[in-house]
Amino acid sequence: MxxxxxxxxxxxxxxxxxxxxxxAVARDLGLVSSAVxxxxxxRDELLTLLxxxxxxxxxxxxDAALAKVDSSDHAERVMAIGRALRAWALxxxxxxxxxxxxxxxxxxxxxxxxxxxxTRVIGGLVEVLEDAWLSGAIALDEAxxxxxxxxxxxxxxxxxxxxxxxxxxxxxxxxxxxGLFGCVSFELFGQYGADTFAEPADIFEHHLRVLVxxxxxx
Length: 218
Hints:
Layout: H1 2-15, H2 22-29, H3 33-36, H4 43-67, H5 74-91, H6 93-100, H7 111-118, H8 120-135, H9 148-161, H10 167-188, H11 200-214
């Protein structure tokens, strides 16, 4: 199974997700196509394996980065998450595109197998923001946000994530989450233009500092 995933990721990088073929993977494994189906039932099953593997690899990279930062330095923890995300995306652009790019036509990732791995990064960010709130490092109005339906939605998120932070911080955390992935995606998919920045890391670091300030840690 490890070899199937490894070779599947090679084909993902060379052929793209839409053209992924179990027959081609079997050929590179030195198996007849019927043999590989004993391990992986379909192309969609292979895509699910690649999605879960990618999410877990990204989650491991973020966890490793966080482990090197003082747990009381909440701003640096947010920065570490962002830097680890960018570094992994630049090293694994095809897998990043599978996870966060355009949907693969005809494929829906099964939530029961991908939601857990897929929420590890946001889980790390939630932990940082919750720690910062409980320690008093972030001070925000605790009043519910309007309209009422938004506050109800945020209350549900609070329950699901086991948080005590107020609406305002949860909403700002979502902005930081979207901002991190947006910045990485813009760079990785060439949305800034080829010659706009001599060193794209410079604008990314600036944006990281802005996002840290947005959540109340700047």
